[in-house]
Design brief:
Blueprint: E1 5-8, E2 18-21, H1 24-29, E3 41-44, H2 58-68, E4 74-83, H3 90-106, E5 111-116, H4 119-129, E6 135-137, H5 144-152, E7 155-159, H6 165-170, E8 176-178
Helix pairs in contact: 2-3
This protein binds zinc ion (ZN).
Length: about 180
Amino acid sequence: MIDFDFHTHRLDTPPGKGIVCLPQHIVREAADTWLPAPGGCYAAGIHPWWTADADFHLAAYMDALARLLQHPEVVQVGECGIDRLQGAGVELQYAVFQAQVELSEAFARPMTLHCVRAFDLILHARKSMRPVQVWTVHGFRGHATLARQLLDAGIDLSFGERYDEEAWRITPEGRRHRETDAE
Ligand SMILES: [Zn+2]
């Protein structure tokens, strides 16, 4: 049992028990009307897979995210990031990610990252954009060497059901989280 679920998609998560990543239909169509549960914690972002939609439109999403971030209950930008196996081409994904880094800085919200085979790009973005907000890679399954590299770059880690014991062990307690990533 996890005390606090750092990353879940379940909207029925009891307030105080986790951070709920808002589904695409809320971000796309209900940014003006959606209301957080009292005491709830949420993340709002553009999932890298959404970049492959035929009607993907960055400006519309950025507008919606800016509106959602007016709620103090929306405590993170995410999940966002880069996925080399799914979604649009990596150049578009990188641009969409950069836009969300800027949003995260402007609204002073940390970011939760979805990263598949793109840690080089995430590290590059962290170095070149010099954000002050914390970034956390969710569902981290990498080995200790990669964990060390990310930690040294100022990126925290969230661990799901399966993870590398050594990577978990070397991650300082204040910088590691547990998650279900439940749908
Ligand atoms: Zn997720």
